[in-house]
């Protein structure tokens, strides 16, 4: 029977991982290694969201650690997130306005759904799940899920079209 080595929050916070890993209830959760479609979409989102949202006082972050729950501790690393202004800490403890998960072939439906629910429970207003190959996905809010087949993702007054990525 395999055993899982539990890691302290301090050890996680003082370690580096490539790519950065998540921390869930004492366990290090390694994220999928990005492939070209994932990387290309992530870059497109960074540029496009910055152009659309920065003039309104929003900041865009790529692979930023976020503490979604203090006890038991959980730290997630969304592919992209957007905050109103610049948070004062290096690891965010307040919910971003938007978190984006770009799907990789190794992602599981249960794993992605768990993250989405965790972000929404934490207080994130909008969560986008994007399939970079199909140029489609879902917009999650506390009020429900909207399927996106036309490439147009919306968060508040911001709308971007990922078909141009």
In short:
Strand 8 (126-131) and strand 9 form a beta hairpin. 22% of the residues lie in helices and 33% in strands. The protein contains 3 helices and 12 strands, in the order αββαβββββαβββββ.
3D architecture notes:
With 165 residues, this protein is α+β, with helices and mostly antiparallel strands. The chain contains three helices and twelve strands. The protein has a six-stranded mixed β-sheet, with helices on both faces. A four-stranded antiparallel β-sheet has the order 2-1-5-4, with helices on one face. A hairpin with a 2-residue loop joins strand 11 and strand 12. The protein is globular and about 45 Å long. It starts with 8 loop residues before the first helix and ends with a strand.
Fold blueprint:
Blueprint: H1 9-13, E1 22-24, E2 27-29, H2 36-53, E3 58-62, E4 66-70, E5 73-76, E6 80-84, E7 98-102, H3 109-122, E8 126-131, E9 136-141, E10 144-148, E11 152-155, E12 158-161
Parallel strand pairs: 7-8
Antiparallel strand pairs: 1-2, 1-5, 3-6, 4-5, 6-7, 8-9, 9-10, 11-12
């Amino acid at each position: 029977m395999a055993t899982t080595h539990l890691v302290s929050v301090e050890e996680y916070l003082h370690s580096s991982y490539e790519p950065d890993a998540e921390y869930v209830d004492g366990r290090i959760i390694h994220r999928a290694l990005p492939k070209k479609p994932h990387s290309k979409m992530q870059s497109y989102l960074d540029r496009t969201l910055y152009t659309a949202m920065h003039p309104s006082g929003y900041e865009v972050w790529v692979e930023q650690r976020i503490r979604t729950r203090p006890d038991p501790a959980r730290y997630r690393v969304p592919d992209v997130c957007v905050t109103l202004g610049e948070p004062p800490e290096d690891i965010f403890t307040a919910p971003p306005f938007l978190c984006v998960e770009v799907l990789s072939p190794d992602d599981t439906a249960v794993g992605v759904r768990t993250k989405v629910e965790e972000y929404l429970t934490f207080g994130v207003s909008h969560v986008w799940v994007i399939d970079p190959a199909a140029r489609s996905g879902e917009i999650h809010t506390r009020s429900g899920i909207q399927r996106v087949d036309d490439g147009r993702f919306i968060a508040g007054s911001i709308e971007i079209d990922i078909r141009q990525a």
